[in-house]
Amino acid sequence: MGGKKGAADGLGRALIKNHNQMVRDSKEKGRALHLQQRRVLESVTDVSDIDAVLEKAAEADRVYSFDNPSANVLINIDSSMNMDEMMEEERGNLRKQEEALYASSLRIPRRPPWNARMSVEELDANETKAFLEWRRNLARLEENEKLLLTPFEKNLDIWRQLWRVLERSDLIVMVVDARDPLFYRCPDLEFCTAIIEFIANDQQYARELDELKKTLLLVNKADLLPISVRRHWAEYFHQHDILFVFWSAKAASAAMEGKPFLDQFKEEITPEQPIQEDLDTKIYGREEILVRLQSEAEVITARKSRNNDNRGGKHLETSNVNSIAKQVVVGFVGYPNVGKSSTINALVGQKRTGVTSTPGKTKHFQTIVISDELILCDCPGLVFPSFSSSRYEMIASGVLPIDRMTEHREAVQVVADRVPRKVIENTYNITLPRPKSYERQSRPPLSSELLRAYCSSRGYVSSSGLPDETKAARIILKDYVDGRLSHYERPPRDKDAEVNEADDIVNSNFSSDDEPNACDPDGNCTNVEAGAQEHSLSNLLDDLKSFELAGALASKNAPVAKKKAATSSHKRQKKPQRKKDRSWRVGNDDGDGMPVVRAFQKSAVNWASIAAPNR
Ligand SMILES: Nc1nc2c(ncn2[C@@H]2O[C@H](COP(=O)(O)OP(=O)(O)OP(=O)(O)O)[C@@H](O)[C@H]2O)c(=O)[nH]1
């Protein structure tokens, strides 16, 4: 009897002990999770940020102290010396070759295998190790002097948010800015059956997670694109087997509030009453997009349940949650500032997530229940690693914060290169200095010209008494990001074919010409640029007139050159001096021909010295 009682006591004690241990473990796990969640999530994209470098280097040392003593390779070593010495064109070609070679290395970090039985510490250590390995691989690419790797997200916690959203989602919606969809696209996250330029299908992360997942490209801010350009993009997406839909979170929000919404081309967007038959170019309304998202996601879950038996453990763990809940999950991912939160707010019908033009506002992913069948998941914006753009392009594209930039002239040059001269002048009511007579007349304005013209028109002066270019640069860049300064890209095929599509820009704010600064907002070449070719010879002669060589060359084209000089106002001031010289030379040319011989002798020297700068 006593023995039985003792055994029962022992069992009871063991059960209580086990229970207490479980409580302690779960408390600890909870504390660790709580601490992890309390960490302020801040995007780190810049390796020149010394704190980030030191922090990450220290982290690397901690993790790699045993198996990798050279973990400090994470620091970006700028070894571009040799490249600088190369010719620009040669450098560009080399870079393209290298980019093609290493394109498949531009992967987003993979979450290492995990299961629910792992402790928080084990999970954290595995993820940190895998992440640092990924960063080391990218650091190796950065060391390649022929490659230019743009700033990318270096905060593991932000990537963790993406991993969670990807794992939960049946359908992944990649939100891109309609003005340059390819810039904001991450092929590694796409699921498509056609050949993607960079990454073989089986290497795509979306596929690795679950081959039944799908990615939909949500081309947001479509209100900033004319319909003709939407059509070209639609063709491009079809050709590349990319699932897409045009959307405008702004138009959808306005429609919900019952306000009329005019796009940039003064056409009213009425998404709920489709007047356009063409579903490819149509900007979807809120209801339509919700139905589309739900149906796409339902197809995926139906396929998943059919394939349930064949799936591996990893898939079961993530997808079971959804099938039990009988809800489909749609995850929104993309670069910062492309309009993910605006889209979610428009779909939810109320402000659920913060919206601002400053990138990186969304810090943690959010889950929003739309209905019993549909859940949306908003991921923080992520800067994916890429070769294709410069830091300045990323600032101008709104991906890196404008307020933190230091090289404002370089970033503004991106704007000046892309927005037609006339559009800049009309938007700001300023006059930009014309190119000098010896310069290419269709060249874009220099950022210094734009900034100074802007500062002088607004009276922006810094404390040093110089034009406040920093202030002007911020305003111009914000206008560019917000769409006040109109611009958009065309699909690559269009550029290659150099198609002249003047009809595409009839209603647009600006030119569609491949040389953006060559035409006015109506698509007509401006006086200066239209006459660029016509004037080129006279401009060249105008330069040459400063030299004695001009006499000989001008004699051939004298009537044309004289006429142009007479009609061109900026040449009039110099006319008396030149006229005097020219009359002397022409007179001699008409005489015994001696000056021709003299000029010919001198030209051998002078031509070489003056032609070089124009090349
Ligand atoms: N013209 C236009 N602007 C839009 C549209 N959608 C969003 N925007 C603007 O784009 C900017 C960024 O929008 P957000 O919704 O905060 O972008 P996000 O992708 O959530 O940004 P992060 O929080 O950094 O990830 C804001 O200034 C929006 O007003 C649109 O459809 N049309």
UniProtKB/TrEMBL annotation:
CDD domains: HSR1_MMR1. Residues 558-595 are annotated as: Disordered. It holds the Pfam family MMR_HSR1. SUPFAM superfamilies: P-loop containing nucleoside triphosphate hydrolases. Its main location: cytoplasm. Transmembrane segments: none annotated. The keyword Phosphoprotein does not apply. GO terms for cellular component: cytosol. Residues 159-385 form the CP-type G domain. Keywords: Cytoplasm, GTP-binding, Hydrolase, Nucleotide-binding. It is found in: Cytoplasm. Residues 561-582 have a biased composition (Basic residues). GO terms for molecular function: GTP binding; GTPase activity. PANTHER family: LARGE SUBUNIT GTPASE 1 HOMOLOG (PTHR45709:SF2), LARGE SUBUNIT GTPASE 1 HOMOLOG-RELATED (PTHR45709). This is CP-type G domain-containing protein. The lineage of its organism: Eukaryota, Viridiplantae, Streptophyta, Embryophyta, Tracheophyta.
